[in-house]
Design brief:
411 residues, alpha/beta, Rossmann fold, 2 domains, 7-stranded mixed β-sheet, 5-stranded parallel β-sheet, 13 helices, 41% helix, globular
Length: 411
């Protein structure tokens, strides 16, 4: 009897191990759909390399599922329509996982198209990993089961940013400059709502929304800021629209404290350094001076590409995928999507969790400040001799905002 029980136990253990490794050695292909040409190509190219580098670094034995990740770029030229064309091409080529982040218009189009595709093509489902599009609608009224956001949305970032700003007595007269699309409009809206609740004495002395990716000279906007008497600038601009704005501030000799989302994105640090010392803050879920595994990954990325690794959502995305595939014992998108819901993994800022109710990743937030490198914060951003130093870390609950998502799950 004892001998028989031992055989059963041993067989069960073998089956358990076999099941856990059922997906080991398989290749998981991810389609990256973002601008690889046009005004935001430098950002898209950096982020494609970041996805590919993280995928290579965390493949095989480096993830609990034992799978190999491969990331292939598709150029959407920053257009929602081109995003749909790229999505169709990727699906036709057999991709079952897609990722995108630059532009909430494109994100909404992809999310809707993925939902429709999955409904019409059972057995050929696709999962959409959103690594940077921060429109709150994507995890609220327009939430979808197949969409998972790795970045913190605009409301989360603004909740954290204004929590920090309310304790800065120098902030009294604020000028808002943002791109005229959903993200920029929401940065302005949520800043006004949040700061009014936390610091009713703060005044908005000016506000501009400008065409995205079309302004070549920001001098007229800088002149308006100067005339407004502002002591602080708040902007959600990114890419060329922030780089050119910083250059215009430099040319005008206007040095005002500036609170941003994306000052660390390609091109902007070099423009900041050209203006000398300036007081610039960034709100985000990571920073340039992490240590440990992510610090080593960032340093190796710099050695390989002479470029900065700043889209840390690529690391979290690959880690979550590996953990979900191990949990699901499969690379099938239907099983992986189910496994992703509520999943927690350890990350560079503490534990992160994919909230089940709306598929919005819950994570720590950091406020960082632009300054010259020092012994403690030695990473030179874009080889400028400057870096973004973490000055405040906030636990996930600080920036966690409620959701109105009514998630419809597959039957």
């Amino acid at each position: 009897m004892k001998f028989g029980m031992k055989i059963v136990a041993a067989t069960a253990a073998v089956l358990c191990v076999g099941g856990a490794l059922a997906q080991q050695g398989q290749t998981v292909k991810i389609a990256f759909i973002d601008p690889l040409s046009g005004p935001f190509a430098n950002v898209g190219q950096n982020q494609l390399k970041s996805w590919q580098f993280a995928a290579e670094r965390l493949s095989g034995a480096k993830n609990p599922a034992g799978v190999k990740f491969e990331v292939t770029g598709f150029d959407n030229k920053g257009s929602p329509q081109e995003s749909l064309n790229s999505l169709k091409a990727a699906i036709d080529q057999g991709f079952r996982y897609v990722t995108q982040g630059n532009g909430s218009g494109a994100a909404l189009a992809i999310s809707d198209a993925v939902a429709k595709h999955n409904e019409r093509n059972p057995g050929k489902e696709v999962v959409y990993l959103n690594y940077a599009a921060v429109d709150p609608a994507l995890t609220n009224e327009k939430c979808d089961y197949w969409h998972f956001r790795l970045d913190a949305d605009t409301t989360m970032k603004m909740e954290a940013l204004t929590t920090f700003m309310k304790d800065q007595p120098k902030v009294k007269n604020v000028y808002l400059l943002n791109q005229n699309y959903s993200h920029g409009q929401q940065v302005a809206r949520y800043f006004k709502e949040d700061i009014a609740r936390k610091r009713a004495d703060v005044k908005i002395v000016g506000e501009d929304l400008h065409p995205i990716g079309q302004v070549k000279d920001f001098a007229p906007y800088v002149a308006k800021i100067k005339q407004s008497g502002a002591d602080t600038i708040v902007t959600g601009n990114w890419g060329a629209d922030l780089t050119l704005f910083v250059k215009a501030l430099n040319d005008a000799g206007l040095k005002l404290p500036m609170y941003t989302y994306y000052a660390g994105v390609t091109g902007t640090p070099t423009a900041l350094a050209a203006g000398g010392d300036s007081e610039v803050y960034v709100i985000g879920y990571a920073h340039a001076n992490h240590t440990g595994e992510i610090g080593a990954l960032s340093a190796d990325f710099k050695k390989k590409f002479n470029d900065d690794y700043y889209t840390y959502a690529t690391y979290n995305g690959i880690n979550l995928m590996g953990a979900a595939m191990a949990k699901a014992k499969s690379v099938d998108p239907t099983k992986v999507a189910a496994a992703l819901e509520g999943l927690s993994v350890k990350s560079f800022g503490g534990e992160v969790q994919m909230r089940k109710s709306d598929h919005q990743l819950q994570q720590s937030m950091f406020v960082t400040k632009w300054q010259k490198v020092d012994a403690k914060n030695a990473y030179s951003v874009e080889n400028t001799g400057y870096t973004f130093v973490p000055i405040k870390q906030m636990d996930p609950y600080v920036s966690s905002t409620p959701t109105s998502c009514q998630m419809k799950r597959p039957a």
